[in-house]
Amino acid sequence: MIKERSGKTDLMIYGFAAAAMLLLAYNLYKIFLVLPDEALQGAVYRIMFFHIPAAIASFIGFFVAMVLSVLYLSSNDLKYDALASSINEVSLVFACVNLITGSIWARIIWGIWWTWDYRLTSMLVCILIYFGYLLLRRSVDEPTHRARLCAAVSIFGCVDIAIVWKSIEWFRTQHPAPVLSIRTGGGQMDPRMEAVIYWNLLALALVMATFVIIRARQESTEQEIDSLRRMVHAS
Amino acid sequence: MDERNFTYMFYGFVVAWLIPMIYVISLARRSSRLRKETDELKQLFEEKQASARPKV
User: Fold this and answer.
1) Which pLDDT belongs to residue B55?
2) What percent of chain A has pLDDT over 90?
3) Which of A43, A88, A215, B29 has the most CB atoms within 10 Å of its CB?
4) Is ipTM over 0.85?
5) Sequence-distant (≥ 6) Cβ neighbours of residue A168 within 8 angstroms
6) C-alpha separations of A146 from A66, A129, A234, B31 in Å
7) pTM of this prediction?
């Protein structure tokens, strides 16, 4: 039968959501009222405080989902597949935030909404791969067959993540070169601005965790509904 | 605050909040659909069990 909702999970959802909201409020205060302006870009530079953390949060999500997909393939345990699918779906939301906010920033800084540059194109391909992943989940009914196919797509998608991440080092791109000190060793950005990027990454990670817990619970309910439906038809 | 390009910064922040909000709405809708489906199946299961029980 369908499991009753666990109070512990509810507590985790509310806890993560509250922590995320508090941290986001603190970050918005820093972004708008404390940080200095950027000399050349004007107000629009503040988009990067969501653009960069959204990208990193989605990459971490896709990577964790890839690890879970490998675990599914080695164990055939559907709980790994359910969790990987939840994480991929939520990561896709943040990947879209990254791409669209980047495009709005580009309209002012480059004078164009879009260019077929290595970084932008590989990110678009990444989004299309994970949209394909979600479509595949809807189109295959048999759970183990669906899980195996989706695990393969999730692992393949992670190869593109590596390309997106390294593209600004490997190729000469329109997109700015790395600015975070974890990649450059420092000196590219005001440390106060960089600190807010990391705090916002933490806030978005908490939002992601909240979404993933909700989505994973829905996924397990869907699996239970499937088995209950089979029982009803068999009886 | 420097007001150059303020409109586009506003658009950027709207997008950064709007996309997760739309996702939250889709999660809520999915939850209510699942709850409805669960209730229907539970009811169907109970009806089938009741009809399968031998009558005294």
Assistant:
1) 62
2) 74
3) A88
4) yes
5) A118, A119, A175, A176, A177, A178
6) 15, 16, 23, 22
7) 0.91
